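Fresh eyes needed here. Kindly weigh in on this sequence plus structure tokens:
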Amino acid sequence: MMKHIRKMVVTVLVSAAVIILIYNYTSHSEERLVKANEPRSTPSTTLTVINSEDFAGTTNTHRFDVPAGFSYVKVSFKNKGSKHFTFTINEGSTSGAKIMSGSIPEDGKEHTYYSHKALSTGGYYVSTSSAQGMSGTLDVSLRTDAYK
């Protein structure tokens, strides 16, 4: 009789364990589905295309390419001269569609500009000019998502 009771107890315990496992799996499967379908935040990727490039004189042009997957540009200037200078970024050629422009004062500080619209892949030109000569550095970085 003891063997029979032991078999029943083992059967009940195994059955209870199976029921608990099935319950846990099915009750959390909806949660797993929701998490699998939630949008995931992917880290932004930054690509430096011009790094601390020096320039001087009255006019300069620097070309950079926007590869597939990158859409936003950050351009930084440091004016090391005694006169302000201006810049433009154009798409495709130095006379192509103007993406952005500005004036950099002669204060020796870094001045940074960001594109707010996604750029197309292809070539872009950063042109700097000053009637009285200039001296500075240029940095251009690209990102997969907008700069904040």
The longest helix spans residues 2-37. Residues 54 and 137 are 4 Å apart (CA to CA). The chain has a mean pLDDT of 82. The helical segments are 2-37.
